[in-house]
Specification:
The protein has three domains: 213 residues, Alpha-Beta Barrel (TIM Barrel), CATH 3.20.20.70; 88 residues, Rossmann fold; 117 residues, NAD(P)-binding Rossmann-like Domain (Rossmann fold). Helices cover 33% and strands 19% of the residues. It has an eight-stranded parallel beta sheet. α2 packs parallel to α3 and α13 crosses α14. The radius of gyration is 26 Å and the shape is elongated.
Length: 453
């Protein structure tokens, strides 16, 4: 019987032909999960046969995130038994369910993965490992309410690895993302991914392409964790930027998005996950360094090993300083408040440029902007992060047009309303992508040189 590969990919496509095409092109490192509840009208034996037996068959109840009615347990088991006629390699059966006779009779050619999805707030993994049901692999799934919750999985996963138990244990939700990626590093035998051309099957599930790009299957206990922390961060370009650089430098580090909006929760996660390096974004650029006793705002933290002192830098300031050196000198209109705005103001003032700062709590009028006659405008608000966001303070932008020569956009999406305004006005634009590249390159150097052995 075939072993279980590291990546299991749930076929979540709305059309079977699309799901089948995805399942057939998966490589040897990935096994399609055939969710019978997603294709309830199809003949389960025919579905297995179409995948040439190479699949994990599952039929998930509504109460566990599936579509099979909870009140039709007999029909669900009968559907699984029908699938066994196609002789799939693996079958998913709930952890607490006795093995039905029809499934037991097929144990000569199918392996069992025993799975359990627990309710939010429940963590009974250690107790369950003491009384394993019959099966060849085991999956325990909980929920992450705080970013550091994933750290609770490390000891049970290491125990399972040391005792030859093929276990995956991870947490759902965006804050559980580290547990999905770090399975191999913590001792887990497999993890679940979404198809690259289909939706995720559960909250926090990552596309297979991301798991492969981050080399999740190759991570080992010596790998250190870095990431971008803040909220929102799941859109971040940081993983695509930093992970290839770590790999090129042969550095045992992995960089992930770490969703967190509170400094206290972030402090807890630093130790629970043994984080070595951080890119800090809103709303933590001021709060997290302050909680660590460091002067902010900072956007970069790193340490050699867990327990050693943190070092900090503001590579945003470095990137902006480099950009300003090529721009016409003179007064500047600064839009926004918070960590990025504070960094921008400090850099501008250090360069000897007069600054008029406008934000919601300290508004400025068009008359004050016209009197300043700014040569540049720095956009340091969060507007532009969401689709459809307007340009900030349009009346102030209009007042700046007669004197402005350049603009700086901190949001690194390509076509924000502010960037469009600057281009239409014929201004020299420093886009957010350029600032991101410059500051991220400085971060990567610090992570590679300062994190781990």
């Amino acid at each position: 019987m075939s072993p279980l590969p590291f990546h299991l990919v749930t076929l979540t496509h709305s059309e079977w032909e699309q799901a089948l095409a995805c399942g057939r092109r998966l490589g040897d490192d990935a096994l399609p999960e055939l969710r019978l509840d997603l294709f309830p009208e199809a003949d389960p034996e025919a579905l297995v046969d179409a995948l040439k037996r190479r699949c994990l068959v599952t039929c998930r109840r509504v109460s566990e995130g599936g579509r099979w009615p909870d009140g039709d347990e007999a029909g669900r088991i009968a559907h699984l038994v029908k699938a066994l006629k196609g002789k799939p390699q693996w079958l998913d059966l709930e952890w607490d369910l006795p093995i039905p006779p029809g499934i037991q009779a097929a144990r000569t050619h199918v392996r069992l993965l025993r799975s359990i999805h627990v309710a939010p707030g429940v963590f009974d993994l250690e107790a369950r490992l003491r009384q394993l049901p019959e099966g060849e692999a085991f999956k325990w799934v909980g929920w992450a309410e705080r970013l550091g919750d994933s750290g609770r999985l490390r000891a049970p996963l290491a125990w399972a690895r040391d005792h030859g138990v093929r276990l995956a244990a991870f947490l759902m939700g965006p804050k559980g993302l580290p547990s999905r990626v770090l399975q191999a590093a913590w001792g887990g035998a497999f993890t679940y991914g979404a198809p690259d051309d289909g939706p995720p099957a559960a909250p926090g599930q990552l596309p297979l392409a991301a798991l492969r790009a981050w080399r999740s299957a190759r991570l080992h206990p010596g790998h250190g964790l870095c990431g971008v922390i803040g909220d929102p961060v799941l859109h971040s370009r940081g993983p695509a930027f930093h992970n290839p650089r770590f790999q090129y430098a042969f550095k045992d580090l992995v960089y992930l998005p770490l969703a967190c909006a509170e400094a206290e929760e972030a402090l807890e996660a630093l130790e629970a996950l043994d984080i070595l390096g951080l890119s800090i974004t809103a709303p933590l650029k001021l709060a997290l360094p302050r909680a660590l006793g460091l002067a902010g705002p900072l956007n970069t933290l790193w340490r050699r090993t867990p327990g050693t002192p943190w070092q900090g830098a503001n590579t945003d300031a470095e990137a902006l300083g480099q950009a300003l050196s090529h721009l016409t000198p003179g007064p500047v209109l600064l839009l926004g408040e918070g960590g990025v705005a504070a960094t921008s103001r400090a850099v501008l003032e250090a360069a000897g440029r007069p600054v008029l700062q406008a934000c919601r709590r300290s508004p400025a009028g068009p008359e004050a902007v016209a009197a300043l006659a700014p040569v540049g405008v720095v956009q340091a608000t969060s507007l532009g992060m969401a689709a459809g966001d307007s340009a900030p303070f349009p009346d102030l932008l209009e007042a700046a047009l007669s004197s402005a020569r350049w603009a700086v956009e901190w949001i690194y999406k390509e076509d924000t309303a502010f960037a469009l305004w600057a281009r239409e006005a014929g201004l020299s634009l420093v886009p957010g992508a350029a600032l991101f590249e410059a500051q991220a390159e400085a971060q990567s150097r610090r992570f590679i040189e300062g994190c781990g052995g």
